[in-house]
Amino acid sequence: MVFNYAKYLILALCFMADFAHAERIRDMASIQGVRENQLIGYGIVVGLDGTGDLTAQTPFTTQSIVSMLQQLGVTLSPAIAASLQLKNVAAVMVTASMPAFVRPGQTLDVTVSSLGNAKSLRGGTLLLTPLKGGDGQVYAMAQGNLLVGGVGASAGGASVQVNHLSVGRISAGATIERAIPSPLGQGQYIALELNATDFTTASRVVDAINKNFLPGTASALDGRMIQVKAPVNVDERVSFLGQIQDIEVDAARTAAKVILNARTGSIVMNQSVTIENCAVAHGSLSVVISSEPSVSQPAAFSGGTTTVTQKSNIDINAEKGALITLKGASLGEVVKALNAVGATPQDLLAILQAMKAAGTLKAELEII
Predict the structure, then answer these.
(1) Which residues span the domain enclosing 214?
(2) What pTM did the predictor assign?
(3) What percent of the chain has pLDDT over 90?
(4) How far apart are CA 219 and CA 201, in angstroms?
């Protein structure tokens, strides 16, 4: 018997979920208004070692260089601008995530991605780039030397590349210029948003908060939103929210679900999956088609022509599948029952769908 250790490691992690205890509110809910904001900007990377954009194929890179030089007091004639062939410059998109409560002067990490056809951004320097939010306002300025995790080399028509060379990162490469107002200190109430809609979990969170504080402190608006009465004083409100986030709640058991990835053959199921008694017969069918050339050559001086025909051989092998009874009331028993069939992950895709159609698989099937 051949053991797949990666498979059993995944199963062991699944079994550990059965022994999960209460979760903290901070792990199952977020505070409304306390969120990250995405920033984006268009910039230029210079200092590349001949691995930049081919400006003949990326005219926007040349236009950006001409525009930048004009702002710096360098004017190029149209003829010179049209003839620029720069190999050490690349047009890039700069992205960053701006956490809540950051203030001007603080720094962010930025990701720099090639926009044109640059071969590599390794060794490049990002020039000053404004980063804008969804409202079009500038919230940060980015600049610095790129760190690219990949490496590559080529010579004589052969090339070797490790990891991705057209994306780099600048640690603390952006400086916040504008703060985003937060509604945390406004109003009498704050709202907790559960990560997943579940009426049972929402009810248990409300009960836990009211048990640790005064009755009526929290109330559920629906299966996802919980309204909490908070102190008006900002310092007391911060301390109050910290205490709420550390409260432990017994989360409701998740809905039974099986995720099937038809492209990779991956199958993931949670601990709520069960199956009823059923019988499964599994066998495999293989068809092998091979062809061999057959040459027919006429006798000498006969005036005939040589002909080549293909002789095909078809071999069909069908393995017998034994009828196996499956039953299981827990994830461990389900996995053990499916392994008893001896099917590959690709075979299990069809078996699980057939079990769902027969009504014996008590879970939702989601194919991605």
Answers:
(1) 23-34+183-249
(2) 0.68
(3) 32
(4) 13
